[in-house]
Amino acid sequence: MIPFGVMFLVLRSMYQNRSVIHSYTSGQMIFYYFMVVLISGMSSTHFEGWRIEEIRRGQIDVYLLRPFSYLKEILLNDLAGKLLYILLFTPIYIGFYFLAQSILPFTLPTFTATTLLLFIFFIIFAYVVEMCIGISIVLLGFWFEGSQGLEHFKWISITLLSGSMIPLEFLPPWLKNITARLPFQYMYAFPINLIQGRATFSLSDFAIILISCIVLFGLVTLLWKKALYTYTSSGG
């Protein structure tokens, strides 16, 4: 949260002599990054590195010999950690809200119950994307010793193309056209704009999300089936 605290100071300086930047008022911009912190805390995953090391050391034998899938173990372990994180994160986030208000005051937008449900749906989608990409990177560890390096590529791609680092409206036109054709925008930029009343959800948006989930689930399933035939260990 420290980088976002620094970002709030930067925003206060940016809006010192102007009221609107790229159609964002100072209040809308500060709320945008405030929601980025929330979505990131709820959806981000960080298990790739040590999971790949687990595979390399041959420590997953138990999940191949018992009726409890290794993929289920990854998911349930991360969900348990996520629940604990949310419990610890909530009071800090509330304190962060009051700190942000003291640096650059902003008002919460008004939204309907439907918008709130859609926002929760997008948080779940963001978590699914993070989880599927993370598991895919882990499964590549069955073949490539240095596959954990892809974790950095995942973070760079999501940060740049989802709107978590900077609102997509600030990107150059050619990069904005790329993000418009990718599902990453539905992780951060779109749900935040939705709750701010700057975007509307349509069937085409749902179709992109659905297709993305099918592709990601298919990739994970395919990699797992292939990985089972390449795994070897002695002991474990």
Top keywords for this entry?
10 helices, two-stranded antiparallel ribbon, elongated, mainly alpha, 236 residues
Q: Distance between the terminal alpha carbons, to the nearest Å?
A: 38 Å
What is the C-alpha radius of gyration, as a whole number of Å?
Answer: 20 Å
Total of DSSP H or I helical runs spanning 4+ residues: 10
Q: How can the largest sheet be summarized?
A: 2 strands, antiparallel
Uncertain runs with pLDDT below 50, 5 residues or more?
none
The strand line-up of the biggest sheet is: 1-2
- Number of β-strand runs: 2
Proportion of strand residues: under 5%
The chain-level mean pLDDT equals 88
Structural class, by secondary structure, is mainly alpha
Instruction: Spell out the helices and strands N to C.
Output: HEEHHHHHHHHH
- What is the approximate shape? elongated
> Helix amount, in percent?
55-70%
How would you characterize the overall build of this protein?
The chain is an all-alpha fold and 236 residues long. It contains ten helices and two strands. A two-stranded antiparallel sheet has the order 1-2. It is elongated, with a radius of gyration of 20 Å. The model has no long low-confidence stretch (mean pLDDT 88).
Brief description of this entry?
With 236 residues, the chain is an all-alpha fold. The protein has helices at 2-14, 26-43, 48-56, 61-65, 70-103, 113-140, 150-162, 173-179, 189-195, 203-228, and strands spanning 20-21, 24-25.
Please give the structural blueprint:
Layout: H1 2-14, E1 20-21, E2 24-25, H2 26-43, H3 48-56, H4 61-65, H5 70-103, H6 113-140, H7 150-162, H8 173-179, H9 189-195, H10 203-228
Antiparallel strand pairs: 1-2
Helix pairs in contact: 1-2, 2-5, 3-6, 6-9, 6-10
